[in-house]
Amino acid sequence: MRICLLTADPGHPLLAAVTGLLTPDHRVETLDPGAAGPGPDLSALADVYLLKARTPRALALAALLEEHGAPVLNSAAATARCQDRVAMAAVARAAGLPFAATRAVATLGELAAAGAPDGPLVIKSRFSRRRDLVTRADSAVRLRELAADWAEEPVVVQDFTPNSGWDHKLWVVDGQLFAALRRSELAPDGRGPNLPLPVGELPAGWTAAALQVGEVFGLDVYGVDLLDAGGGAPLIVDINAFPGIRGQAGAPEALAALALRTAARGRAGGADERKVSQVSEK
Fold first, then answer.
1. Do residues 9 and 77 both lie within one domain?
2. How many domains does the chain have?
3. pLDDT at position 192, please?
4. Are 14 and 244 in contact (CB under 8 A)?
5. CB 84 within 8 A of CB 126
6. Domain range spanning residue 212?
7. If you average pLDDT over every residue of the chain, what do you get?
8. CB under 8 Å, gap of 24 or more: what pairs does 257-261 form?
9. pLDDT at position 162, please?
10. Which residues form the ATP-grasp fold RimK-type domain (predicted)?
11. Can you give the pLDDT at residue 269?
12. Among 56, 60, 137, 281, which residue has the fewest nearby CB atoms (within 10 Å)?
């Protein structure tokens, strides 16, 4: 099989581990969506593409590959559904998922101009990307400080939910669940390393919610950030397509198996299409 990584960072620990598992018997290539030069040879597509990128160029390239019959994990459409946090929240809440109430503000400058908030707020860039804004603001002073650097940034606002200060990081690869604890992005001392969290110790409602995310958003490889909102009630605060899933035993193996299974289905489907075409030509 030919497996192509759509990424600017093939050395990422998860991708490097998957490459190591696949290369004894299969060919693994890398295509940087942001690189200059000619695009992929659409007459010689790989058997499957792993979309570990979320820039507009990466999404456009993935959509182009799909249009020409190549399977992409995750699909361009599913990845895009996790980029706009307003749309993300709307899709999740419409499906009954316990997603934090989220409202859009045109710019952070507009939010700051409105004055002091009624209570602590979590403010995030509307469009998820590397080094985007995720912070807490409790006062007009803090909002003005943020606006000094992010005045024109489109943002979303969520009411701050009192919690333990730990994010529950849940990752899913083809229905297989992995989990860890990590200090919140809002923690004043930084996030620190992931801590082990046995999946079997998660409440059943948490695992069910994480698995439902995949069905609702059409994702095969994704992450769900959960808070304990009190009494063990889960609150989803973010969803990420194709996250890093660092340090999770079994995750590279699950991803390698998914890639091969998807590639095999793509080959079979391509053969069926060729047969149909040949019959119709006769």
1. yes
2. 3
3. 67
4. yes
5. yes
6. 164-240
7. 90
8. 257/174, 258/73, 258/173, 258/174, 258/220, 258/221, 259/1, 259/3, 259/18, 259/22, 259/48, 259/50, 259/73, 260/1, 260/3, 260/22, 260/26, 260/48, 261/174
9. 84
10. 119-247
11. 62
12. 281
Give residue 188's pLDDT: 63
- 90 domain residue, yes or no: no
> Out of 174-178, 186-190, 233-237, 268-272, which region has the weakest mean confidence (pLDDT)?
268-272
Long-range contacts formed by 19-25: CB under 8 A, 24+ apart: 20/252, 21/252, 21/253, 21/256, 22/256, 22/259, 22/260
Q: Where are the alpha helices (DSSP H) in 124-190?
A: 140-150
My answer on whether 123 and 171 are in the same domain is: no
Verify that 15 and 59 share a domain, yes or no.
yes
Q: Are both 65 and 130 inside the same structural domain?
A: no
Find the helix or strand (DSSP H, E) in which 211 lies.
Answer: helix 204-217
Q: Please check whether residue 245 lies inside any domain of the structure.
A: no
Q: What tokens were used for 35?
A: 């690189």
Residue 273 structure tokens:
């299409």
The alpha carbon of residue 213 and the mean position of all alpha carbons in its chain are separated, in whole angstroms, by: 11
The length of the chain is 282
Residue, of 164 and 30, whose pLDDT is higher: 30
